[in-house]
Amino acid sequence: FVGERDWEKLNELLPSKKLExxxxxxxxxxxxxxxxxxxxxxxxxxYIEPSRTRSLWDGHYLIEWAESFRExxxxxxxxxxxxxxxxxxxDMILAIVEDAPRAIVxxxxxxxxxLMLAFRSTLASGWVIGSLLTGLMWTVGVMSVWNTSWQGxxxxxxxxxxxxxxxxxxxxIGVGADYAVNVLQRYRIAGGNLRRVIVETGGAVTLCxxxxxxxxxxxxxxxxxxxxxxxxAAAAGEICTLLTGxxxxxxxxxxxxxxxxxxxxxxxxx
Length: 270
Hints:
two-stranded antiparallel ribbon, single chain
């Protein structure tokens, strides 16, 4: 179906019959460099696929799969080390599992030590520590049910810890203690005038916390799920420690004050 004139035009575009086979050795250096060994050898790559019945979004399987090819011992005794995105992510998860408890404990111990030195009173420090621990437990509670959904029945699902949002817990410990410290110190200076403490110091503490919370909530607009979860966890920590410092702590102080007053009046036995 091709005329002679058309063939004449096509022949100018057809390649020569003396073509050579293009192999790995003929690839341009720029193309072959990422696939070249240190000794110049090419073509030793091995592609490994995960199981089709499992998902790499499952952290447990991700770690299991990464460990399966992290190191491969050959018959001659040499070891081939595997790498890739899965290995890197698995290492990040393992680092969180190892470092998160350590960071939280160190932050809590350091904060408690500073409180003891600042107040030099076991009772006063105990009030702040109680408020802080209550706020921290509330924060963990919020994170443990954050992804809960109702689909005919209640499916309780926690927020997954990642290399960003676990930082919110040590931050909550350090920042949350400040609110209780300010309220309690003002309570001691004001001689137990709780109304003045709530109106003046409580208002200032609430304002400081709200500006910080708004900054954390702005992170929830990010398309990065790690940054978004960090914003949620940090904002939850701010709100929980604010409530325990401005609401729960003053309420407990008032109850103790009333109890002591009734004991001093003889209304109830000590």
